[in-house]
Amino acid sequence: MAMFALLGILATGCQKENINPETVTATDTACRYMVKYSVDGVHNQAQFQTEEEQRAFLHSLMALAREGHVVCLFGNDTSSASLTKETVVYRTPDETNALTWADKMRNDGYTVTITFDEDKEEFVCIAIK
Question: How far lies 23's CA from each of 26, 39, 57, 67, in Å?
């Protein structure tokens, strides 16, 4: 009898909680965009509700690269481990072009390292997959 009582308590403890949609806050909803990144080797991630929020954040990372920091954006597809690494380099003085290229490569599964060459006044983006 004690065993059945214990099982009954455990069964009710494992049931999912019903959530009333009216009480769900913005922090309870899943974020649509996530960026895994590092600055000078310190790894982090950021989540955003809109593409505009994500884009503004990526621009702030480009500003850090311009200041001399090494910024890495990690690709969304980490499932394809290959023995041979593909490397693509893109250089441009235009921050928006560098950001657009780096974000596209990140979405294609590349890890993108972004630095700023002060002598040539251009962003250097190196994508590796």
Answer: 10, 37, 29, 43
